[in-house]
């Protein structure tokens, strides 16, 4: 089958699952996000640690998944925020397990075991802060807006990059991602802003136009930085794709790399200005 067809079909299935889970309701959203968090952490740890430190890897992934679940319980059921401290149980076990590892270089890999939680799990755990209103009702529209802007930015950057950035274009960050161009960057930014305005007038999100545009800017700009950060991570380990779960796309880490930096900043902005 043609790779473009495979890539397109795989991408559509991915979008349907993500959008569908948000539209269906809180439990569907939580189930999909727990799965995504676990797989992304697994891909990150597989790249950085290979098949080593299996117990520590399990405890790291357990910590990240539990972090999401505890944030979800806190927001959905208005349980005390101190419940989030329960993540200390698997997190502590993670570092205890390293003490008993006979590999003399084990300590050097702590950064990846802990980093997986901060880099791959915390961003998704924080989305719980914007999918529930103060009365505990589920409101996934803002998160849906995040994803739409992120996807539109990627598609816009790809199209403009192919049209104007391949032959005589200006490289965005050649030492990390040789194919990315400034033409693609500005194309993605343009598409993000256009769709942000369109979405505002559809009434999908209940914030002012200026906040809608600023959030779109945050998602776009930090999404690009997240993409570059993940490219640098893979390049450091000599890996092309983070996995093979999505035919034609790679792994989930490849698909969510932009979200890992942009979503936390966007959530911070929304909470800072009390937009939800």
Mean pLDDT: 91
Output the helix-strand order: HHHHHHEEHHH
Number of helices: 9
- The geometry reads as globular
Strand neighbour order, sheet with most strands: 1-2
Poorly predicted residue ranges: none
Classify the helix fraction into a percent range. Answer: 55-70%
Which band does the percent of strand residues land in? under 5%
CA-to-CA gap between the ends? 45 Å
Radius of gyration: 19 Å
Total domains, how many?
Answer: 2
Question: Which structural class do you get from the secondary structure elements?
Answer: mainly alpha
Give me the count of strands. 2
| Main sheet makeup | 2 strands, antiparallel
Question: What report would you give on this structure?
Answer:
This protein is mainly alpha-helical. It has 2 domains: 26-137, no CATH class; 140-276, no CATH class. The chain is 70% helix and 3% strand. The chain is built from 9 helices and 2 strands, in the order ααααααββααα. The chain has helices at 3-24, 26-49, 54-76, 88-99, 110-126, 141-165, 182-202, 209-236, 252-272; strands at residues 171-173, 177-181. A two-stranded antiparallel ribbon has the order 1-2. A hairpin with a 3-residue loop joins strand 1 (171-173) and strand 2. Helix 8 packs antiparallel against helix 9. The N and C termini lie far apart (45 Å). The model has no long low-confidence stretch (mean pLDDT 91).
């Amino acid at each position: 089958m043609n790779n473009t067809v495979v890539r397109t079909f795989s991408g559509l299935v991915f979008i349907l699952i993500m959008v569908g889970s948000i539209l269906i309701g809180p439990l569907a959203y939580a189930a999909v996000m727990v799965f995504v968090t676990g797989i992304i952490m697994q891909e990150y740890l597989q790249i950085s640690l290979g098949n080593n430190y299996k117990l520590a890897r399990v405890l790291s992934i357990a910590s990240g998944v539990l972090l999401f679940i505890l944030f979800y319980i806190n927001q959905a059921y208005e349980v005390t925020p101190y419940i989030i401290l329960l993540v200390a149980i698997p997190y502590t076990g993670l570092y205890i397990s390293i003490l008993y590892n006979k590999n003399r270089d084990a300590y050097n890999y702590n950064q990846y075991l802990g980093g997986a939680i901060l880099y791959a799990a915390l961003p998704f755990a924080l989305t719980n802060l914007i999918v529930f209103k103060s009365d505990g009702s589920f409101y996934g529209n803002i998160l849906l807006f995040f994803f739409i802007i992120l996807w539109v930015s990627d598609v816009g950057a790809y199209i403009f990059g192919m049209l104007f950035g391949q032959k005589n274009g200006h490289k965005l960050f050649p030492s990390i991602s040789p194919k990315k161009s400034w033409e693609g960057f500005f194309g993605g930014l343009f598409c993000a802003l256009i769709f942000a305005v369109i979405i505002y007038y559809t009434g999908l999100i209940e914030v002012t136009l200026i906040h809608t545009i600023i959030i779109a800017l945050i998602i776009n700009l930090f999404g690009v930085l997240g993409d570059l950060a993940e490219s640098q991570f893979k390049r450091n380990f000599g890996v092309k794709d983070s996995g093979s779960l999505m035919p034609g796309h790679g792994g989930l880490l490849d698909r969510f790399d932009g979200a890992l930096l942009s979503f936390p900043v966007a959530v911070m902005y929304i909470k800072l200005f009390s937009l939800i």
